[in-house]
Design goal:
By secondary structure, the chain is α+β, with helices and mostly antiparallel strands. Helices cover 45% and strands 23% of the residues. The chain is built from twelve helices and 24 strands. The strands form seven sheets. A six-stranded antiparallel barrel has the order 2-14-17-16-15-18. The protein has a four-stranded antiparallel β-sheet with strand order 7-6-4-12, with no helix packed on it. A three-stranded antiparallel β-sheet has the order 3-13-9, with no helix packed on it.
């Protein structure tokens, strides 16, 4: 990790805490003996195993005011936090100008959809009338064709009349021939006597011939009608009836098809009108949701949302909120809880039901009791965005007592009481190192550091339980000799690290062997950092991460003690720390 990356992680950590990490554990332990550069004695006594974490107070039960506007919206009015409100009071106003513009456009869309629906409905009704007219016309044509057929085949129908007319035509033709022959016979007599001209005689002869031809035609017509006329006419009239039936079926199917089209257009227009009306109603509702009113009387508290970098953000006028984001909460009676982000390395110790000690920053000097109520099963996704290598689990701690001075959003430190060990040996956590996958300590024997393998139990971030390998009163060094280089863990088996052991020294011993060639907490050389301060480039990623975790886990009292002990950070402090470095070197040699 380079200087720029380290600087990002070190932002927010006071210089006193950086020095606290760089120059030993005395600021943690508050004991001059432990802070002695010559080493620390192995102690016997009671040890409380606990885990420290930071969190924020939240009300157990509260009314929440949520942004119900779709998309994102800007806050144009926000009531001051801490204001006591009554039910119905306006506490927040969101910018709905965009929704109002869309509402005007939507009203126009509703009018257009309504006009389209009226037109489609009228076209449908016209088609219904047109279908009825076409159907009636086709039915009439069929009935007329059936009447023609019925009239033709009746006993005294058209066919019998045609036959009678054919016979009558023959009779009339024969009578006409007789008359013409009588006239011709009379004309011939007159011609012989010279009373008429020959032209008149020829005319009468022609008349007889014509009448004979007419009779012959009438006879042929009668015979043809008898032979073929009846069957042809019957087929013609029957075919006409069938044709009209088919025409009627076609008309009805076409009418049904056209009606379906118009019905579909009418239904689509009606649905579109309904959809546009619903969108209009929704936009009206959206505009109305731009005003947030208190659902009940109480104290206004801004809702904190975690940012992508892990910090808490509060709403403010001019700020942007997304849909379904809680803007304001109004706590109800019932006590408080602490929302804690627990590092994954602490999950094996913390479980539901463990007792906790809570220190609220706003109420210094007071200790409150509580219990772990819930531990998330999966890591908080927000922690991944702030640091891809970090996994935090949301944990809820319920406070036992209801304290009126507590307010949602107050910062607090939580100490989870994991276990109380009695009459055990323990050493500072900083004095334990990893070598070839095994935990070791450097014991001062006659002023000479001797490496010794030890068995380590649980730790509480300050002290580690020694199960075997050390005796009470032995002196262990807080940093290894400058010439020591840890061996990597064997390839055939992964190192078995005791639960809870994750000190910066141990982590660095495995991850960066070269870094351990010098004391882990030695000050920076000339040019590595600011005057009197450690060089940032001398810290590994694990050390920087550990510094931040330690700082966040410190109670207000511990932070104050660290600032008092290493406060200032100027050249004078640097001189003191320079002298400390000389003492450390003498002790290590």
């Amino acid at each position: 990790m380079n200087w720029t990356e380290n600087r990002k992680l070190l932002i927010g950590i006071p210089l006193a805490v950086i020095l606290l990490f760089a120059f030993g554990a005395s600021g943690w332990f508050g004991n001059d003996e432990i802070g002695a550069l010559q080493g620390v004695a192995v102690r016997r006594g009671d040890l409380r195993i606990s885990e420290l974490a930071r969190g924020n107070l939240e009300a157990k039960d509260s009314a929440r005011l949520v942004n119900e506007l779709e998309g994102r919206a800007n806050i144009i009015f926000l009531i001051e936090e801490g204001t006591r409100v009554e039910a119905g009071d306006v506490v927040c106003e969101l910018d709905t100008s965009g929704h109002q513009d869309r509402l005007v456009d939507q009203a126009i869309s509703v009018d257009r959809a309504e006009a389209s629906f009226v037109d489609a409905k009228a076209q449908y009704e016209i088609q219904v009338i047109q279908n009825a007219s076409d159907d009636a016309e086709a039915v009439l044509s069929l009935e007329l064709a059936e009447l023609d057929l019925e009239a033709y085949v009746a006993v005294e129908g058209e066919w019998e009349g045609e036959l009678a007319r054919a016979e009558e035509a023959i009779v009339l033709a024969e009578e006409s021939i007789k008359q013409a022959e009588e006239t011709l016979d009379w004309t011939e007599k007159l011609f012989k006597k010279g009373f008429v001209q020959k032209t008149e005689l020829d005319r009468d002869k022609l008349s007889v011939t014509q009448k004979s031809i007419s009779r012959d035609q009438a006879v042929r017509d009668r015979n043809l009608k008898k032979a073929y006329g009846d069957r042809a006419k019957r087929k013609e009239l029957s075919a006409a009836v069938e044709s009209r039936k088919r025409d009627l079926e076609v008309v009805r199917k076409q009418a049904a098809a056209r009606l379906v089209d118009f019905e579909s257009e009418r239904a689509a227009a009606e649905r579109e009108l309904q959809r546009q009306k619903e969108k209009h109603v929704k936009l009206v509702d959206q505009v109305s949701k731009g005003i947030l009113r208190a659902p009940e009387a109480g104290l206004v508290v801004y809702a904190r949302t975690k940012s992508r970098y892990g910090g808490g953000e509060v709403p403010q006028e001019g700020g942007e909120v997304h849909e379904r984001q809680t803007i304001i909460t109004i706590p109800r009676a019932g006590g408080m809880t602490a929302d804690v982000s627990l590092h994954e390395t602490k999950l094996d110790k913390v479980r539901v039901g463990l007792a906790c000690l809570i220190h609220v920053d706003a109420l210094p000097g007071e200790t409150f009791h509580g219990r772990v109520a819930a531990v998330a099963a999966v890591a908080d996704s927000g922690s991944w965005m702030s640091n891809p290598n970090q996994r935090l689990y949301r944990t809820e701690v319920t406070l036992s007592a209801e304290v009126p001075e507590m307010r949602p959003g107050m910062s607090c430190s939580i100490e989870v009481l994991v276990e109380d060990l009695s009459d055990i040996l323990f050493v500072p956590r900083q004095s334990v190192f990893l070598d070839a996958g095994k935990t070791t300590c450097f014991v001062s024997e006659g002023g000479t550091p001797v490496q010794r393998e030890v068995e380590i139990g649980r730790d509480n971030n300050k002290f580690a339980h020694v199960r075997s390998g050390l005796e009470e009163g032995e002196i262990v060094l807080l940093s290894p000799p400058s010439s020591w280089e840890p061996a990597p863990p064997p390839e055939e088996a992964a190192p078995e690290i005791p639960a809870g052991l994750s000190t910066p020294a141990a982590d660095t011993a495995v991850a960066t062997p070269a870094a351990n060639a010098q004391p882990l907490t030695r000050p920076a050389a000339s040019g590595e950092g600011s005057p009197g301060g450690p060089g940032m480039g001398s810290f590994s990623a694990e050390q920087v991460k550990a510094m931040r975790e330690r700082y966040e886990a410190m109670s207000p009292e511990e932070r104050a003690a660290a600032m008092k002990r290493y406060g200032g950070g100027g050249s004078g402090g640097g001189g003191d720390r320079g002298r400390g470095r000389g003492n450390r070197s003498d002790g290590e040699e």
